[in-house]
Structure to design on (181 residues):
């Protein structure tokens, strides 16, 4: 009888301890937090879902081993999973057609421009790049701006039939222009 009482008491203590630990404390907190940006232009909704890497003093873009993101190599602007763009209507991206749907975003950074890739493989990890699944590739300019410690997507320009999406990390900003069809 003593053993079953001791066992029951131990089980009850374990259950009470598990209940008393807040659910938030049981979750894994990632270094790159999840972010979502949504913008409506007329009746078309753009939604970007991504994990936000932090610069933490690292050299972000360049050539050679000292850089986190190497010029000339495919990279999804984000962390953990590939960055996802969902667009609810057909649009033009830098003048090229893109059908409504979900896409992963990839980039091939260079010092003065980036090649932006929209891939049909949208539910993928951030490496490796999903070869052969490109839907559209465009070339966009990059500019210098004030330091952005955590990668950010934002729409600095929105008008009745167009929007500009910025991808901003460190002092680098890539700008993508969208127009409604």
């Amino acid at each position: 009888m003593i053993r079953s009482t001791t066992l029951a008491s131990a089980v009850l203590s374990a259950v009470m301890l598990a209940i008393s630990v807040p659910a938030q404390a049981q979750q894994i907190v990632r270094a790159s937090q999840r972010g979502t940006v949504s913008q409506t232009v007329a009746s078309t909704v753009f939604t970007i879902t991504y994990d936000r890497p932090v610069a933490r003093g690292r050299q972000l873009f360049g050539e050679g081993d000292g850089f986190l993101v190497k010029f000339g190599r495919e990279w999804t602007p984000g962390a953990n999973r590939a960055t996802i763009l969902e667009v609810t209507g057909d649009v033009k991206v830098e003048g090229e057609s893109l059908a409504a749907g979900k896409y992963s975003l990839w980039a091939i950074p260079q010092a003065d421009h980036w090649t932006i890739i929209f891939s049909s493989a949208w539910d993928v990890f951030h490496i490796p790049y999903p070869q052969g699944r490109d839907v559209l590739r465009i070339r966009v300019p990059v500019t210098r701006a004030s330091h952005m410690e955590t990668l950010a997507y934002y729409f600095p320009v929105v008008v009745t039939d167009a929007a500009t999406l910025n991808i901003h990390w460190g002092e680098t900003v890539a700008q993508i222009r969208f127009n409604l069809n």
Summary: The first strand starts at residue 33 and ends at 41. Residues 14-21 have pLDDT under 50 and may be disordered. The radius of gyration is 22 Å. Residues 28-180 form one domain.
